[in-house]
Amino acid sequence: MKYHIDTIPIWDAAKLEGECLLCALERRTELGEAERYLGASVMEPDVRIRVNQRGFCRKHHAMLFTMSNRLGHALMLESHMIENRERLEESWKSLEKAGGQLAGAGFGDRLNGKAKAARESITAEARKIQQMAGTCVMCDTISDNMLRYLHTFFHLYQSDGEFKRRFLEGKGLCIPHLGQLIEVAAEELGTRELGEFVQALARTEKQNLDRIQEDISWFIKKFDYRYEKEDWKNSRDAVERTVNKTRGWCVGKEPNEA
């Protein structure tokens, strides 16, 4: 079949034969975004505007910090900090006003209308601050790209028999990506196709979860003196693979390593 720009990364991830091809895609996207934000794009006005507005989550700040461009990281931090302080100015005013109303209230005033309004104002500002600190421009981009890949997955699944066979005979998906794929399947597939797909997917997943369960159980048994002379079989990295299967890739070997 003819491949296009979105199908090639999906096929590449499938050929790795890892525990979750969508984890491989997500990690590839994440690394690409990190390099982009620390590269020449750090000076692009539209990029700086998005970074200033959304910032980075703790995970992605930690990731950027480990990469070899402290200046690029600092440039984004400086402008994001300036914008954050500007946005916080209104919060300081509201909090100081509400705090003053409550600090000057007597015991009998705590249930009156002004005290109640002051408390509600404080709670509202707290929520605004939490929301401000809970956004991430990298998470946004990764989420958008992954949604596109999920829809493209079904283009391949329906039009490329070799891809369909490789996927259903492979190691399946991690549980988070499994849920996401099923949700998109309900949008992409017709009634009969959807029924056949979820049945086939369930068989693949159950087989692979059985495999992972056997590996982690054997790993544990190897710490029992009765099994110390037995072969490790396929269990040496069972802890990493079990974590990654249940929560998505986060530990151990990079999912894009061949």
Can you characterise this structure?
This protein has helices at about 5-15, 20-35, 45-55, 60-65, 70-105, 115-130, 135-160, 160-170, 175-190, 190-220, 240-245. With about 260 residues, the chain is an all-alpha fold. The longest helix has about 35 residues, at about 70-105.
Features of the shown structure:
258 residues; 2 domains; globular; 0% strand; 11 helices; mainly alpha
Topology diagram in text:
Blueprint: H1 7-15, H2 21-37, H3 45-54, H4 58-66, H5 70-103, H6 113-132, H7 137-159, H8 161-168, H9 175-188, H10 191-221, H11 238-247
Task: Explain briefly what this protein structure is.
Helices cover 72% and strands 0% of the residues. With 258 residues, it is mainly α.
Q: What Rg, in angstroms, do the CA atoms define?
A: 25 Å
Q: Quick one: overall form?
A: globular
SSE order in H/E notation? HHHHHHHHHHH
The tally of strands reads 0
Structural class: mainly alpha
Largest sheet: none
Mean pLDDT: 92
Spatial separation of the terminal alpha carbons: 24 Å
Number of helices: 11
Number of domains: 2
Helix content: over 70%
**Could you tell me the strand content as a percent range?**
under 5%
Catalogue the unreliable spans: none
